[in-house]
Amino acid sequence: MPNCWNTTWDACNSRSATPRALGTCVDFTQEIAPIFTGVCSTCHSGTNPPRGLRLDTYANAMAGGASGNTIVSCQPDASLLYQKISMATPPVGARMPFGGPYLSDNQIARVRLWIEQGAAQSCPVAAARCSDQTPPTFAGIASATLEGASAAKLCEAALRGFDATGDGVFLDAMEAIVGPWTTS
C-alpha cells in the first residue's frame, strides 16, 4: 500500500483499478485500515498513544480511548473520531491529524460512510445493523448538560498534556485549568 499521506483516496486505492462508488459497502480492512495506518497510526498506536486511543486495529479503534468510544456505529455526527477528522474546530481538542495535512474529502467521505453503515469490520453489512437510530443513553439519561465540575473535568480530559499557550506550561491537572478546588 502506498503512503497516502498527501494524496487522494482514489490515488491510494491500489487494491483496485476502479475506485469504489460512494454507495457501496465500506470495508474496514480494505479501506479504513489503510487510511488509519497511513495517517493516524504514526501517533495512535503502541503503548502510550495520545488520549489512549489506538487506531492500529479494528478492535482498538472500536474500543476508543480516554474520551470513551470515539466511533458510534451508524451515527457519524455523534462520533468524536469523525468530528475530529472533518471539522475545522471539533467540539473537543484539535482537528486531526494534529497539525495536518488533513484527510482528503474523499477519505473523510469513506470514513463517514463506513460509520453510517455500522462501522463493521467487513462487508457485507446486515441491513438491520443500523435500523435503530435512537441516540445512545447512559443509565436512562437521554441527554445531559455539562456544568461546574463536570465541564471542568471534561476540559481537563481534553487538554491533559496540551501546551495551550506555547510557553512550555502543559495542562496536566485540573488545577492548571481552574485552580485548586475539591470535587466529589
Secondary-structure topology with pairs:
Blueprint: H1 9-12, H2 28-40, H3 58-63, H4 80-86, H5 105-116, H6 148-159, H7 174-178
Protein structure class: mainly alpha
Return the average pLDDT rounded to an integer.
Answer: 73
Per DSSP E runs of 2 or more residues, the count of β-strands stands at 0
Q: Main beta sheet: strand number and arrangement?
A: none
Strand content: under 5%
How does this structure look, described?
Residues 1-20, 137-151 and 174-184 have low confidence and may be disordered. The protein is mostly helical and 184 residues long. It is globular, with a radius of gyration of 18 Å. It contains 7 helices and no strands. The protein has 2 domains: 9-130, no CATH class; 148-178, no CATH class. The relative contact order is 0.12. The protein has helices at residues 9-12, 28-40, 58-63, 80-86, 105-116, 148-159, 174-178. Helix content is 32%, strand content 0%. Helix 2 (28-40) crosses helix 5 (105-116). The longest helix is centred in the first third of the chain and has 13 residues, at 28-40.
Task: Write a brief caption for the model.
By secondary structure, this protein is mainly alpha-helical.
List keywords for this structure.
184 residues, mainly alpha, 2 domains, 7 helices, globular, disordered N terminus, disordered C terminus
